[in-house]
Design the sequence.
């Protein structure tokens, strides 16, 4: 990647050690530059207005303005950065709140270095990103608390999909990215993206996590 294509990242977390660790990982990538950090949502807004990051790593739970509110405000800025939520998955409601606020995906705070950099590159490219490990934990929690009516509705929604769309939806629920899906079923990434757009429309899902949750509620994910 050329220097003028470097991805500018802002790291937001109320734990200074977490910020240092994430910053060190990201700075080791030749195509990523950490342009600033913040300890809460209000500081994140201020830093974004000064540094114009392409991507913001945003902790969900922080004192003062939390990550959900900060994400909503960032996504409504004129030069809105993409946002990746950082979570320990203490509760799935907070994760879904951040996605509803406009986050392009989420990763666990103990994410592997390579996966973190891949997440930044993915959302900067315009796609959503969900950690396979985090997605599995999230949908397991959501499925356990679901009532029978929601499970039945999910099954009906899945029934609308074609065989190919169902196959791709299952792969999405497993946490696979577009490239991995394309390689697994011998399609181009562009074709996979088109299928996922149709799947989200049919399932009325806001993003890849929504697809994964519907698949899980329908009982298709072991």
Sequence:
């Amino acid at each position: 990647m050329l220097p003028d294509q470097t991805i500018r990242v802002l790291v937001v977390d109320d734990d200074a050690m977490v910020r240092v660790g994430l910053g060190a990982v990201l700075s080791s990538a030749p195509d990523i530059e950490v342009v600033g950090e913040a300890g809460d949502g209000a500081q994140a807004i201020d830093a974004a207005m000064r540094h114009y990051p392409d991507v913001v790593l945003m902790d969900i739970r922080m004192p003062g303005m939390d990550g959900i509110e900060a994400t909503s405000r960032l996504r409504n800025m004129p030069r809105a950065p993409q946002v990746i939520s950082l979570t320990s998955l203490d509760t799935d409601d907070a994760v879904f709140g951040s996605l509803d606020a406009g986050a392009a995906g989420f990763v666990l705070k103990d994410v592997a270095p390579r996966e973190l950099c891949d997440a930044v590159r993915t959302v900067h490219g315009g796609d959503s990103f969900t950690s396979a490990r985090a997605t599995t934990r999230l949908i397991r929690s959501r499925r356990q608390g679901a009532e029978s009516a929601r499970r039945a509705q999910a099954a009906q929604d899945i029934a609308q999909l074609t065989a190919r769309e169902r196959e791709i939806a299952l792969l999405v629920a497993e946490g696979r990215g577009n490239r991995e899906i394309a390689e697994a079923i011998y399609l181009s990434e562009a074709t996979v993206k088109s299928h996922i757009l149709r799947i989200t429309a049919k399932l009325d899902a806001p993003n890849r996590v929504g697809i994964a949750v519907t698949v899980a509620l329908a009982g298709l994910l072991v």
Observations:
- The first strand starts at residue 7 and ends at 12.
